[in-house]
Predict the 3D structure of the following.
Amino acid sequence: MSISEPSQAMRSASGQMITVRNLGLQPYQRVASRMATLIDRPVKTGEHAIADEIWLLQHEPVYTQGTACTQSVLQASTIPVVKSDRGGQITYHGPGQLVVYPLLTLRRYRLTVKSLVNLLEQAVIDLLAELGLDAQRRDGAPGVYVADEKIAQLGLRIRRGRSYHGLSLNVAMDLTPFDNIDPCGFTGLRVTQLRELLPPNEVDFDLLSELLLTQLLRRL
């Protein structure tokens, strides 16, 4: 993956130009390294300002452990376990899960860490409402839930006033690997996905990516 990946410039509701990249299926560590490199670039102003970015992608199968994580997989597995500098506990990423990484300069949008978390969760909640699903957030347990089952995970890091990592929405994936962890550190937490909640003809990964991106840009 390089900065030459196909991209498009899109304008947010506040008038900021954001570079949107659709990266397809990617190894986790390669993307994490590229994010860190991008975040460490100097933030310039005026005509030399570097645009913020939103990355849309899927990951090859991987368990990631956040900075607060004290747990690993419950049973031996062929799926790699990777330490991440994002917040949170342990989670799973794999094909069929929509991953969104907002690489944002928070002051441009008058955002705090808390308001960014709220923005990301609300974007997913409103997307699911468009699809006829009633979703909620939970105090003390970042992410989005349908009934008592988690459908979207959230883990961020802020460095030099910029965000990276982000959210993942379970769309049409193999959920079995979640059985081998306590998702996000909660024993017995059940997970779900859009494929289990919607008619098959409504689960269009590319369309859902566009709809979620639209929800995010409305709030930035």
About this structure: The chain has one domain: 7-219. The chain has three helices and eleven strands.
